[in-house]
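Appendix B, Record 12. Input sequence as logged:
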Amino acid sequence: AGLIVVAAAAVLASVGAGAFVAGKIGPGHGGAPPASGSTSPAGATSPVTSPAASTQLPGAAAMATLGSYLARSASVRPTVQAAINGVQGCSESPASGEATLQHAIDTRQDILNALPTLSVTGLPSGTQLVSTLTTTMQDSIAADKDYLSWMKDFASSGSPCGSDPGQDSNYAAAVNVSGSATTAKNAFVAIWDPMAPRYGQRVY
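Logged structural output:
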């Protein structure tokens, strides 16, 4: 039981991303952010800069785009966690859980595919923001895929409700990758949060 609690906590931390994706942003899981998801975002606060003023800052368009990515990833984060809990507790079918995870994967993959084309010219620390968000999305997607594989294992093996998911190699791999996603999310947030209020964006 202790292992399940620890695993669930790790999942919550990363889903998100987002967030993204997984943790604080709504990654893979993990949290999204409430993206990942995946995503949105937990701990968000209201922006302190007026929209008119924020759009005049260098890099404002890139910040707005990144903000939209975070919101998308964060939107899938709670659905991923709910699906994992539902399948493990047999309140949701593996097929339904798999569909939820696939949606989170697709959402986060779309964000990951778009990041290389985002121009961050004029945006302070723009390159670092894109780099850390890229890593977060990659790790969150990897965790989502491992959770998806675990659900398929769960369905094919007839595992009893409430069984220890940590005994499945795919679930264990997902928890491990979720930890990496959380590290990447923390690196992103450390750059994002000091900048976000000036651009009228949420902090995480």
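The chain has six helices and no strands.
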